[in-house]
Amino acid sequence: MTEQQAFEHLSFYGDDLTCERGGRVVFSDLSFALSSGQALLLRGPNGSGKSSLLRLLAGFLAPTRGGFGYKHGPDKEAISLGYRLGDFTTLIHYVGHQTALKPVFTARETLTQAAALFGHDHQLVDDALNALNLGALADLSVRYFSEGQQRRLALARLIASPRPIWLLDEPTNGLDADSAELLTNLMKQHLTNGGMIIAATHLEMDIDANTLNLKDFLPRQNFNSDTRFDWSMEESA
Amino acid sequence: MLVGFVWGLYLIFFENYVDYQQRETVNIMYLHVPSAWMCMSAYALMAVASAVSLIWRHPLADLTAKATAPIGMAFTALALITGSLWGKPMWGTWWEWDGRMTSVLVLFFLYMGYIALWQAIDNFDKAAKAASILALVGVINLPIIKFSVEWWNTLHQPASFMRSGGMAVDWGLMGPMVAMLVAFNAYYVTVLLWRMKAELMERRLQAISMGMAAGR
Amino acid sequence: MSRSFFALLKRDLQLGWRQGNTSVMVVAFFIMAISLFPFGVGPEMTVLGRISAGVLWVALLFSAMLSLDRLFQADFEDGSLEQLTLSPTPLSAIVFAKCVAHWINTALPLIIATPIMSVLLNLPSNALPTMIIAMLIGSPALSFIGAVGAGLTVAIRRGGVLVSLLVLPLYIPSLIFGVSAVDGAINNIASGPSLLILAAISLFSMVIGPLAATAAIRLALE
Predict the structure, then answer these.
(1) What is the DSSP letter of A225?
(2) What is the ipTM of this complex?
(3) With contacts defined as CB-CB under 8 Å, which chain A residues touch B200?
(4) Closest partner CB to C82 (pick from A86, A90, A96)
(5) Residue B76 belongs to some domain of the structure
(6) Which residues span the domain enclosing B42?
(7) Between C208, C219, C222, which is nearest B137 by CB?
(8) Can you give the pLDDT of all 216 residues of chain B as single tens digits?
(9) Cystine design at A27: which of A118, A154, A217, B100 (Cβ 3.0–4.6 Å)?
(10) Which residues of chain C neighbour A121 with C-beta distances below 8 Å?
(11) Which residue from B113, B136, B137 is facing C165, i.e. has the nearest CB?
(12) What residue ranges in B169-209 does DSSP mark as E strands?
């Protein structure tokens, strides 16, 4: 568990984040701060930007305004602020709606590849399979997996390569009650180890977490064609 | 623009020094040379606008690049067609795989791909960025393509056909040429501004529609 | 970093083999496309011999292009591309690995099939070694330039035709020098310069291709 030790004294924060999608401001001036062992649950109606926030924090989207970053150690300065900074992505796990699985690989192969991609060797692969109750299916092609099993395999990546920040988009989707509980326990374990979790979920989850309701960060005006440039500047007469 | 055209056309048809060898067919050159010139400078401008759009992210640069492409492509087509019309009486064939014509043809393909990419992506900002990347890759490759086509051409065909007599120096020919170049440039700027204005209005319309959808 | 690079390379190679055997299909296309030419220009061996270098190269371009639209699209659709961006390895290096895998999965089998096809087309046998060398040197450019087109069209459904529209003009230099190297060998002219230029084009596209493709992929993920 030496990797997990490194999770301590880390904090993750966002400042005045504003996000636009297709010319529409999804949320604006959103700030949050998390430190080791804390979780944040994202709430809000459909389209309020839960997924967008997670994708933004994972570096897929650029915030229109604002920044985010992490601090290492209790007293140190912010190490990285902003987006798409190489060393930043190595702290992050993102599990979205898509499972990123290839039907032709076995569960074990999938996790070995995932670990290698994230710069780890395969020593935790078996732990990960067992943690999500996939041990018996380890050498079966993903092709034969049910939807729930595929979701579990996607989540097993979280264990196969340890990273401190988990960004989870509706992680309980497609899971039955038992598996959802399994996931809840893994999340608790991760927090105990000093990790951090930001999850968008519409279900109540039995973990100690702060809640962030995206409804509170709706943009002030309802639409704005483009904040970079006012397309209607010409000929208002 | 109009002045330039009228002046140029007047010079061409009434004050013209007629090449003894080429006769009236040389007049096509007054369309051919400016359009060939314009199709290249339009691509250069498109690439510059694309670079500006990628670096400074100014939407007007996107608009400029987008609006330039169809005009540039039209100039390219004009250059090819006039070249072909001139080639028939001069070289006795509509088409020669001559180095210049071939590289202009490739330029036409590049314009085509650029416009197709714009049309294939719905989201304006995404289409703009993708097209900018393509335009820059294209402009980096353009010298390589040009070089290889010229090289290929000299390998396959000894350059025996370029016997366009004395048009480089004679002022009787240069006068209308300059006039037509000015006219073509003016035409380009005018149409570019029209297209950009139309594009702006379309964007505005989209913004209004989006506002209406959001208001419901 | 090299761990992720090679893991991905291995993954893509395995994918190519297990997922409907891409290489076999590409080679089949290559063979069929070439076999059409005798029907088109007549079975005269002298005529075929003269155009053989060009036909082989054009068939190589088309075959390599055929599988380009899936280069990033499959990974984009199932979410793998998102995972790839979270690797400690820079995305451009990952794109590089995918291009190498594409080359091994498509161009390499075609080059192996070339000697057989060159017999069918009556390519002068003294030119065959040059043909193979030219293909080995020149074909990486096809994968790396192709990656730009594949990246730009990754989010576009049915982007296959568009890829060819974007990529084919950029393939022209490779085609020209590839054929001229072989022509040189046939006519006993030194083909060294052509091969060197071919190598330069490949090296150049290895730099430009992954960078532009990476920008395009980032864009698609937004």
Answers:
(1) S
(2) 0.81
(3) 231, 234
(4) A96
(5) yes
(6) 2-162+177-215
(7) C208
(8) 666 666 666 665 555 555 545 555 667 777 788 888 888 889 999 999 999 988 888 888 888 888 899 999 999 998 888 888 877 777 777 777 777 778 888 889 999 999 999 888 888 888 888 999 999 988 888 888 878 887 777 665 544 444 444 444 455 666 677 777 888 888 888 888 888 888 888 888 887 887 777 665
(9) A217
(10) 3
(11) B113
(12) none
CA B101 – CA B90 distance, rounded (Å): 15
Cβ-nearest to C87 among A62, A98, A117: A117
Tokens standing for A109?
């192969």
Region of residue B35 (left: phi > 0; alpha: psi -120 to 50; beta: else): alpha
Q: Assess if residue B18 is contained within a domain.
A: yes
Query: Cβ contacts (< 8 Å) between C204 and chain B: which residues?
Result: 144
Instruction: At A125, list the tokens.
Output: 């692969």
If you search the block for the tokens 């170049």, which residue do you land on? B181
Which candidate in B58, B62, B200, B209 is best for mutational testing of the A interface (most A CBs within 10 A)?
B200
Chain A contact set for B57 (CB, 8 A): 228
The tally of domains found in chain B comes to 1
Under 8 Å CB pairs connecting chains B and C tally to 72
| pLDDT tens track for C4-57 | 888 888 898 888 888 767 888 899 999 999 999 888 888 888 888 888 889 999
List all chains that touch chain C, counting a touch as 3 or more CB pairs closer than 8 Å: A, B
In this predicted model, what pLDDT tens digit does every residue of A150-205 receive, in sequence order? 999 999 998 888 888 899 998 888 888 888 888 888 898 888 888 889 998 877 77
Whether the CA torsion B135, B138, B143, B145 is positive or negative: it is negative
Residues of C whose CB is below 8 A from B117: 152-153, 162, 166
* Cβ-based neighbour number of residue A146 at 10 Å: 10
Q: Could you tell me which chains touch chain A, where touching means 3 or more CB pairs under 8 A?
A: B, C
Residue entry with tokens 């390599």: C64
- Residue A103, token pair as written in the block: 């039907």
The DSSP annotation for B42-85 comes to HHHHHHHHHHHHHHH--HHHHHHHHHHHHHHHHHHHHHHHHHHH
Q: Which two tokens stand for residue C169?
A: 């003009």
